[in-house]
Amino acid sequence: MPNKLWYLLVMVWLFFSSETKAQYNFDAIEKLWNITDLLRNDEMPEEALWKDLFNSKAYKLKRPEKNYTDQVKLSLVLAFMPSKQEILKENIKNNVLLQRASRFALLEPYLKRHILWIQENNLLDSMQLQADKLLPTALYNCYPEPVIYFRYLDYDASADAKGIFMDLLLSYDVDRYKAGVFGGHELFHYILAACEARRFSENIPPQHQAVMRIIRQLSEEGTADLIDKPFLLQTNSPLMTKTDFLKLHEGLATKKIIEINAALESLAADSATYTRLEAWERLIPVNAHIPGLFMAQTISEEGHIQELVLKINNPFQFFYLYNQAAMQVSTKPPRFSETAIAFLKHLEKQYWFSP
After folding, report:
1. Is the pLDDT of residue 101 over 90?
2. Is 316:352 a contact under the CB 8 Å cutoff?
3. Smallest Cα–Cα separation from 175: which of 139, 134, 125?
4. Would the pLDDT of 196 be above 50?
5. Residues 6 or more apart from 271 whose CB is under 8 A from it?
6. Choice among 95-104, 153-162, 193-202, 270-279 with the minimum mean pLDDT
7. Which of 12, 82, 110, 266 has a CA that sits 20 to 30 A from residue 201's CA?
8. How far is the first Cα of the chain from the last one, in angstroms, to the nearest whole number?
9. 97, 113, 122: which is closest to 17 by C-alpha?
10. 22: pLDDT confidence band, cut at 50, 70 and 90?
């Protein structure tokens, strides 16, 4: 079937389908395919088409850095344009963006079928099953149904109260392997945000704003990682980034707990070193997945997962439960010191609101 005809059938099916519960937004993908059709014909798209693409909600509501989108544009041009194939071959070996763009070009017909699969199988149902495993029943129905925005960008996903943002190539890889686990991770984030499940004082002083953000991020990412990482880090998982993630997780997790402990002790002593978010971001890699996953795994493996679920609205409990669980592990992983725990309890009392 010609590429254009298949694309038209996909778009017609999406428009007239009334069975779907979830709000799946493929607008950015539709605009991108209009661009890639031109590129395949060796035509350089007008800048207005790129601007329209990156102004679609999938990008606008969760806007990436312009420098990064410029790199994405270049990688797509090289991957799709016949006249650029020699340049592509010369540069693809050590360029992750070019490797992804090349896969996106190769898989385009399958990706168009994948958006049908997403709707036919109502992917949100699978996401909800996964997210609910780590949520108390009080949070099952407290949120409006999310819009799931699909785009091509960074082989990743993210979420906030505005919706869920999913890279289509990532969804193609992981949802055919274990439907809903990566999206379930993001739905978990969306629900906590949309339900305002974690409430903090609006008057946190500047010296504690960064550490409060990190406490929230570590606990939330670590817990959400229990949804997808047990599946996506398996040997036969198709996740393209699993090797790099595993290397960081296995090599840095316990080291980072020791460093976070030292940072908390430093703040407890009124040091200014970790009053800025940049210092924490240099300390904790991969958006706090390291060491968040290790901490969450320890909590789960030592039998404290239900306590974590019941106390999910309180991010400080993640640290307390980790310390409790770590004491039970024969290998004696690092724990947070009495000074660090006392400082966390001080922050909890000052800034966290119990529902």
Report:
1. yes
2. yes
3. 125
4. yes
5. none
6. 193-202
7. 266
8. 56
9. 122
10. low
Length of the chain: 355
Q: Which residue's entry shows tokens 């906030």?
A: 160
Those residues with Cβ within 8 angstroms of residue 75's Cβ, 6 or more apart along the chain or in another chain: 95, 97, 98, 100, 101
Mean pLDDT of 277-306: 96
Residue 25 zone, left/alpha/beta (φ > 0; ψ -120 to 50; rest): beta
DSSP state of 329: -
Per-position b or e across 91-115, b if 16+ CB within 10 A of its CB: ebeebebbbbbbbbbebbeebbebb
pLDDT at 16: 45
CB 231 within 8 A of CB 178: yes
Strand-pair category, 163-167 with 147-151? parallel
Distance, CA of 111 to CA of 62 (rounded, Å): 22
d(CA 102, CA 108): 10
The amino acid sitting at 308 is L
Average pLDDT over residues 284-313: 96
